[in-house]
Specification:
mainly beta, about 30% strand, about 260 residues, 3 helices, 3 domains, ShKT domain-containing protein, four-stranded antiparallel beta sheet, flat
């Protein structure tokens, strides 16, 4: 080359914008998984979307393998950053990666072929932490998370849900609102946010499930290949069935219930 500096490693700099992989028709597993609760802050105006709402919103990622992302906000509330007229939003993951102290996810509306969101999670997820949702596939890598001008983005002040802990979203409100099982049965918009007051804690649920557990017939036990009309790449899709469990390589674990 006429300019030796062009090939000098000291002249190389890290491009600020991420590399985007080529289009892939198959949905991709999300880069992380778990259950979370959150409140929504609109970063451009610092507006607390949930200021008058004591019920917490929830986020589920990869409830089953390749299941995607599900945001669920209080019914009739205003905490949904994607829509003020719906309490449910599902996204499909397209790509993800780890960089420095963050995990990034590129996502689209469920089953859409056009990625349009970037989610940025901190790798350290103790106590309350902030997740940034950008209405763009451009993912800022700087610590402050501020995008280029014109991009809408929200902060979700989030906590990981502990599967071994059962608690109401707000103890005092739940105690006042639900005094009998009939109250819980009538008020379906608020009851899910008061599992302790409504005697719906996971331990109780698991006890009920144990009483319904069954076993697969012996002719079904073994290793299988999974076929559908749309899935012809069966080399990677398998099913392993034991006496009480069916494990789908592309979906996850399923328990036999009556």
């Amino acid at each position: 080359t006429n300019d030796p500096n062009l090939c000098d490693e000291n002249q190389l700099t890290l491009e600020e914008w991420p590399w985007i992989a080529k289009w892939n028709q198959e949905r991709a597993p999300c880069k992380l998984s778990g259950g979370f609760s959150f409140r929504t802050i609109r970063r451009l105006t610092n507006e607390d979307y949930c200021e008058e709402e004591w019920r917490r919103s929830t986020l589920e990622i990869e409830c089953m393998k390749s299941d995607g992302v599900e945001f669920r906000t209080p019914v009739n509330g205003k905490c949904n950053p994607f829509s003020k007229h719906s309490h449910l939003k599902r996204l499909t993951c397209w790509a993800g990666w780890h960089s420095d102290n963050f995990t990034f996810i590129i996502a689209s509306d469920a089953y859409s072929e056009e990625p349009k969101y970037c989610l940025r999670f901190p790798k350290e997820q103790r106590g309350e932490f902030s997740v940034l949702v950008y209405f763009s596939i451009v993912c800022p890598t700087k610590v402050d998370g501020k995008p280029i001008a014109g991009i809408e983005y929200y902060e979700l002040r989030m906590r990981r849900k502990d599967p071994h802990t059962c608690e109401d979203d707000d103890r005092e409100n739940c105690k006042e609102m639900f005094k009998t099982p009939i109250d819980c049965a009538k008020n379906k918009a608020y009851a899910p946010h008061c599992p302790l007051a409504c005697d719906k804690c996971p331990l109780k649920v698991r006890t009920d499930l144990v009483s319904r557990m069954c076993e697969f017939h012996e002719i079904h036990i073994g290793n299988w290949r999974y076929f559908t009309k749309r899935h012809y790449d069966t080399e990677k899709v398998t099913v392993q069935i034991t006496d009480k469990m069916a494990v789908f390589s592309h979906l996850g674990h399923f328990q036999c219930l009556k």
